[in-house]
Amino acid sequence: MSYQAKEELAGKQDNMDSIQKQAINDFTHRYSLKKPNISFSDKPGKKTVVFPGRDYNIEGIKKIDETEYAIREITVDKKEISAGFERLRFPCKIDLLVNTKGYKELAHFTYQGMRYPCILRLEKDEILYAFDPISEAYRVMTYGYFKKEDKVTGFMKNLKSWLGNFLPYSVRVHAIDCYVKATKFFSRDDGFPKWPIDTTADDLYQLAYESMKLAGGEGIREEVIWPRGYKYCFVTTHDVDTYWGFENIGNVCDVEDNVGLKSTWFIPKNFVSEKVAESEEVQNISQVKMIERRGFEVGSHDLTHDFSADTLTYAEYEERIKEYLNHFRGVKIKGFRPPYNNFVLKRTETLKKHFLYSSGLQNSRIFGSLERHRIGAATIMPHLINGIVELPVTVPSDFLLGTLLKYDPEKILETWLKQFETIKKRKGLILMQTHPCKYDLGNPKILKAYRKALETVRRDKSCWVATAWEVANWWNEKHIG
To answer: What are all long-range contacts of 405-412, with beta carbons under 8 Å and residues at least 24 apart?
Structure first.
């Protein structure tokens, strides 16, 4: 093997070790484990979870490509076990059967019509998985299964951004509609993530958690996800993408005040800096501060609502954040959502220096790109990415349902309420993403449907209704007791 090849292999191993470390950190945080009881030691000791490839002979690895997976056979104590996977290949179905007596019935996964066991052996203090469920979950939550975009996809993204900056909103909506039709025609739709909701990442975490309890792992205790005995959580957020929407903020706040809850508003800088008259900027800053005085939260939506940050260096990106925060002096900005939910993993290292949380990921998103029809984090829970709390959007937005899918207000409400019920059963985070723009909550009928959705949640005393900052603060500081 050449020196360069060895260097590349070492780099990949370092990256894999980093992913494992981040995954374990997030997993132990979610389940309030006092001490990580997971290791990847070659010589597992007491209270150690054993993963394949460390202490057992693995043969027959078949490389497919770097983003796909390798089918393999595992030999344990000279006895061949049925084929497992070095990495999960999507779409696959994870079936969890918790509270069972035997680990063989605990879980299995189905791929291309074939069923495989998730756990090959489970004894006291020791587990042999067919794959690493914790790292796989983390990979899904950070879009790790998604290939880098090609030049055509990148060009279309930049074109969409240009259209957003220079065309009137009504024309822009028509242009985006054409783009969506193009993604339907050109992109690959393999059914993963499932839409409108997918919980693959949560299922993988739950698999590890339940199996560790069966193995009697140290530090494993009953999960406590939400504070004060609440069963699930609700957060509603708004992206201000147009000047019309900025002017409509007060009307939406009035509706929420009448229902009895507060929301989070993600606002770009350009809506409070560009001005027609000399007093315009002062007036817009005053309106932002008014939102905060009323008890609502204000978050960053970048300087401008486009993809202009994509090509910046780390230093340039950090200066961009500082410019935003300096402009909003006196306003408590703790969260960030990228324009168009354009999540970029490498940016999280910079974001965590200035924000408590990010909310750029989506549970399941159709019309992802020209290359892949669907993308999504496949989780309905907050999680840690490079040390920053990520609050994923778990409910389809008003723009997606109304403008792109052409749902009428009744069907939009029906979709929302069904999503609420699904997440409630899983004790997850209901996080809405809406827009105060003319064709979204600016439409009185959609605003009425939105109010009904809020009233439904507000009547449920088992639901913790909070702002995004309150949830991120709980997750970051109070979740581990």
So the answer is: 409/443, 409/445, 409/446, 409/448, 409/449, 410/449, 412/446, 412/449
Q: Which helix (H) or strand (E) holds 245?
A: helix 243-247
CB 327: neighbour CB atoms within 10 A?
Answer: 16
Backbone angles phi, psi at 248, to 5 degrees: -95, 5
The separation between CA 383 and the C-alpha centre of its own chain, rounded to angstroms, equals 8
pLDDT in tens, 355-377: 999 999 999 987 655 455 577 89
Q: For position 479, what pLDDT does the model report?
A: 55
- Please work out, in degrees rounded to the nearest 5, the angle formed at the alpha carbon of residue 157 by the alpha carbons of 412 and 19: 85
- Within 13 A of 257's CA, how many CA atoms are on the CB side? 11
CATH topology of domain 224-478: TIM Barrel (3.20.20)
Domain boundaries defined on the chain: 34-135, 224-478
Beta bridge partners of 298: 265, 333
Q: Which residues have a Cβ under 8 Å from the Cβ of 37 and sit 6 or more positions away?
A: 47, 48, 49, 212, 217, 218, 219, 220
Nearest C-alpha neighbor of 27 from the set 210, 167, 162, 172? 210
Residues of the chain predicted below pLDDT 50 = 1-14, 16, 35-37, 39-86, 98-101, 150-152, 274, 276-279, 370, 480-481
Residue 321: strand, helix, or coil = helix
